[in-house]
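Technical annex B. To support the medicinal chemistry partners, we prepared a structural model of the target in complex with phenylalanine, based solely on the information shown next.
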Amino acid sequence: MDLQMLTDALKTLEQGAMNQLKQVQNEAELEQWRVAYLGKKSAVSTLSRQVGSLGDSERPLAGERINKTRQALQEALATAKGTLEESLLLRRLETQRVDITLPGRRHPRGAIHPISRIIHEIEEVFLGMGYTIAEGPEVELDAFNFEKLNIPKDHPARDMQDTFYLTDNLLMRTHTSPMQVRTMEKMAGASPVKVIVPGRVYRRDEDDATHSHAFHQIEGLAVDKGIRMSDLKGTLEEFAVAVFGPQQAVRLRPSFFPFTEPSAEVDLRCIACGGSGCRMCKETGWIEILGAGMVHPHVLDGVGYDSRIFSGFAFGMGVERIALLKYGIEDIRMLYQNDLRLLEQFERIF
Ligand code: PHE
């Protein structure tokens, strides 16, 4: 081995390395190349170990050439590495391209259920008339659901409101009227009492197109000095116009409830025919929507409002019935089936 042989070997080596480097496709191959040409067991390292066997005059030059070769290889490696990274990046940008002009994926949005909508809407109307909103328990004492509403244990009015009993004295409330009693007891004689009570109620009814064993009511109660039946009618007219439009009118027919006297069934002018008579109103021009009346003196006296001083009115409406009428839905069961074809027709507000 002499300087010339070493120089030739380095040259061949460098050329071979450079050719090889051109073939490199990825980082793994580049690393293999680095180990092969610049690693401890590489040809350059082997050659540098042989420098010692050269003569004194040749040794510095030999070292210099070896370093030069090594340097050339290192620079080539760095350049190759840069090029490789760049092309990998380009490929990634190409394959992971994002089209920012595509419309985004929409998340399905919920809507307020028609029953809740009606409740909110009616609440707004009565809030505007100075009422507050209260809610009561669905599992109710017999005393509140019946007895304090002037319906004793053996009263025939109980037949129409049979329900689910938990014990002899505890039942699923059949109407929101027990909240009349609870509200007045809580107010303890203070006036005026002006409250509306939305909530779920239960009856021992067979489910069909117009009945459900669980449904919703909104109770209304106003008690003060000098409240008259005309106040009831005016209030209900205000409600009918707000919910069903300016042409609306209500009609009171004599009726009976044990806890009101006098009592009335309240009809809405038929929203389908405007009063001329059609199938929906059975040719009468009117549709029954709620029960109402003047709070019975027994009820008032029973909760500490002296019926010689105070008077009041109460009403109870079926929310489902109003929803069916307002939205033209034909079967009450559709309100409970969560069929998106129905629910999707309501404005999405979340
Ligand atoms: N609670 C009665 C019912 O469910 C309705 C009603 C409420 C009647 C208030 C008069 C006064 O049928």
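Notes passed to the chemistry partners:
The first helix runs from residue 3 to 23.
The mean pLDDT is 92.
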